[in-house]
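Sanity check

After download, print the first record. It should look like this:
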Amino acid sequence: MTPRQCFFACLQRSPPALFEAAVWIAAEHEKEVNTEAVLKNFKDLQQRVSYGLPMLPVSELAQPLLRRMNDLGFAQDDFTPLRPHVALVNKVLERRRGQPLALGLIALELARGLEIPLVGVNFPGHFLLRVPGADHLLDPCGGRRLYPNDCRELLQRQYGPNMKLNAEHLLTAEPVQMLQRLSRNLRQLHLSNDDYIGALIDAERVLELGNASAADYLARASLYQRLDCPNAERFDLEHALLLSDDPIQRIRLTERLGHLPPNSIVH
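Expected structure tokens:
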């Protein structure tokens, strides 16, 4: 099977193999990735983390788990410009630096193996974690507790003072949602590093995961434009037009479609 087929096979399991699916995403971009070796090395990491945890009920071990990861060197990568390796879980395991989502996926897999209750939260701009039923969230980059006021401050720091915290921001993320967010992150990272083929691989995965937005189709259309594939660009612009609720965006999309050649060569 191809890495993409293996990726979707992970999602068909019950429960879905979230972390392994993320490793297969890395394998799509780096042919030398040995998935079995990555998973084996992960088991070694799990043992190291386990040895350093306090003797507490599992329901109280999520924050110590994140602090133990931090003690072992796992932290947010603040180096700019960001490169795709901050979102590829195999590279984050090697470098122990990454985006909050990649660190969160590692934490979720460690928690699963150690039977520690922990779920992901697709908080805007900064992926977070939560122990089911807790009155706070946890930052995967070190384990800091975030209460509602902290979440509001984090949100406004990233999006400005007019951004309001609402219940939707705090919902538990399903595996498909996390992997789609990871794919969007990688799409942007590859694009910002002028790797249009790499970005296209991620853009296609975003759409294949379902429930894609107009912005997702528009992102792939822009990649096809850069790669001089007008028929493919037209296909995605038409889908973005169907999904868009923004009147101004609909006008711009219609104008852009009008500028495409009518009978272009199929790529």
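If your output differs, re-run the checksum step. Summary of this record's structure: Residues 3-170 form one domain.
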